# Entry
Amino acid sequence: MQKIVLASGNPGKLFELQALLAPLQMTLLPLSGLGIGQAPEPHRTFVENALAKARHAAAASGLPALADDAGLCVHAFGGQPGVDTAYYATRFGYEKSDANNVRALLEQMQGVQDRRAAMVSTLVALRSADDPEPLIATGRVAGEITREPVGDGGFGFDPVMFLPEFGQTFAQLPAEVKNAHSHRGRAAQAMLALMRERWL
# Structure
């Protein structure tokens, strides 16, 4: 069973990605379990941040690494908050939290008619810290920002991300449906195919 370091301390991500990568007989090890700290994320794109996180984890552990960088891209805001999604509320004087992020977004979108947005996830996998050919997989789900939160499942911006194909927000979908069709789920399926083709 091959071990891969997940360059994240997020237990939700670990659980989701471990389940998605189970068919490859790979075990994901969280950074925290190896006593490795988080990498800085100074870049302005998801792919650069994910690559920096994967390189850091591979260099510190000596193992292959997998990293994810994801966020919300609002069309009317030129793709923002993008890589700053987790800290969005702090721009407007709120403390960092999912609820404050949702509140700040709805306040900023008052009177905005163009509600188009996408949730984007970029996964990067490296065999070693100096792997010249990283595997890169992106998942994207397009939808619209609602005018108020709907549903109590999920996390982050799920209650305000309406998906026309389901007629519901992410927060209204059962977990297994969300995971199969989410930006991270789509990126993981693409990563699974890349790993099968290039690594196994």
In short: The radius of gyration is 17 Å. The chain has a mean pLDDT of 94. The first strand starts at residue 2 and ends at 6. Residues 76 and 113 are 9 Å apart (CA to CA).
